[in-house]
């Protein structure tokens, strides 16, 4: 069987996935998203990398960041329509690409999320912050690795940032701040399997690894697992990461991440080779599809 790994920025992460995929797939292709093009006609559609048609592959794993989400949305839809196994449903990247939209979908499905407001207006933001209560979290609706995430403790801190964001036509998701002591839990969902590690930082509100946080062993309860599974399900992910905190004894989802980080350190903490589980899941689903076709 054949799998393609579509990647955005060049990194060692997609290479880790490739190495594991080579152990169980007969053919493995890595293709940069910049090299992908779509071909549509009344009779046919193709997803091409050079002269290779990815709709003829058994599985395609899509690993992109927010800058490529619109393209990833079209990519997953085209592949799904051709019955290629991917890790996402047709609308999944539309949810992931907009932090407010993803929070809205989760909340509508009964999943705990911070109260959020979506605005371009500094005046609306000031008014909303009074209702949410300071401090508030400001997030650009697109951004990865903690980029575009800020905290304001007062109107005098909030207003200048919002004025700047408006001048750059940046959309902002304003959220209530949930105390979590600088620690959150990255729960990884792969099919029905759940695994996790926590991220901890001396900073009392942000724990991203890219921002200086460190990975530590996680202690998940059943409510956290249930919330992560449900969040993956309602956003259409078969494989994803969910950032979760506990507040007032209940879990809150902060973000859904389709291209979560991978590392040997993470595997050691979790006790599982996550990249191998990821490609094994893609292989398992591709096999199931082949059996149904017979």
Describe the structure.
The chain has 294 residues and is of the alpha+beta class. It folds into three domains: 86 residues, Rossmann fold; 62 residues, Dna Ligase, domain 1 (2-Layer Sandwich); 97 residues, ATP-grasp fold, B domain (D-amino Acid Aminotransferase, Chain A, domain 1), CATH 3.30.470. It has nine helices and 15 strands. The strands form four sheets. Strands 13-12-11-14-15 form a five-stranded antiparallel beta sheet. Strand 1, helix 1 and strand 2 form a beta-alpha-beta unit. Helix 1 crosses helix 9. The radius of gyration is 20 Å and the shape is globular. The mean pLDDT is 87.
Secondary structure topology:
Blueprint: E1 2-7, H1 12-24, E2 27-32, E3 36-40, E4 45-49, E5 52-53, E6 59-63, H2 69-81, H3 92-96, H4 99-108, E7 116-119, H5 122-132, E8 136-140, E9 149-152, H6 155-167, E10 172-176, E11 183-190, E12 193-200, E13 214-217, H7 222-235, E14 239-247, E15 250-257, H8 264-270, H9 274-293
Parallel strand pairs: 1-2, 1-6
Antiparallel strand pairs: 3-4, 4-5, 7-10, 8-9, 8-10, 11-12, 11-14, 12-13, 14-15
Helix pairs in contact: 1-9, 5-6
């Amino acid at each position: 069987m054949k799998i393609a790994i579509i990647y955005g920025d060049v990194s060692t992460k997609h290479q880790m996935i490739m190495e594991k995929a080579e152990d169980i797939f007969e053919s493995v292709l890595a293709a940069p998203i910049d090299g992908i093009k779509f071909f549509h006609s009344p009779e046919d559609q193709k997803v091409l990398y050079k002269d290779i048609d990815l709709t003829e592959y058994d599985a395609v794993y899509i690993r992109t960041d927010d800058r490529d989400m619109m393209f990833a949305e079209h990519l997953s839809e085209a592949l799904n329509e051709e019955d290629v196994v991917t890790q996402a449903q047709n609308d999944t990247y539309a949810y992931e690409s907009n932090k407010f939209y993803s929070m809205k979908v989760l909340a509508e499905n009964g999943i705990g999320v911070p109260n959020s407001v979506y605005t371009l207006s500094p005046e609306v933001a000031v008014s909303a912050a009074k209702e949410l209560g300071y401090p508030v979290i400001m997030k650009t609706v697109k951004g990865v690795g903690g980029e575009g995430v800020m905290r304001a403790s007062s109107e005098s801190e909030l207003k200048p940032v919002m004025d700047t964001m408006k001048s750059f036509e940046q959309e902002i998701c304003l959220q209530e701040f949930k105390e979590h002591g600088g620690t959150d839990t990255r729960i990884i969902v792969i099919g029905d399997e759940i695994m996790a590690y926590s991220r901890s930082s001396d900073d009392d509100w942000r724990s991203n690894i890219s921002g200086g946080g460190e990975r530590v062993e996680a202690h998940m309860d059943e409510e956290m697992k249930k919330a992560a599974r449900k969040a993956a399900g309602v956003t259409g992910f078969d494989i994803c990461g969910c950032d979760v905190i506990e507040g007032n004894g209940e879990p809150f989802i902060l973000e859904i991440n389709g291209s979560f980080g991978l590392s040997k350190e993470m595997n050691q903490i979790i006790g599982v080779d996550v990249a191998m589980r990821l490609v094994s899941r893609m292989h398992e689903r591709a096999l199931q599809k082949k059996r149904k076709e017979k």
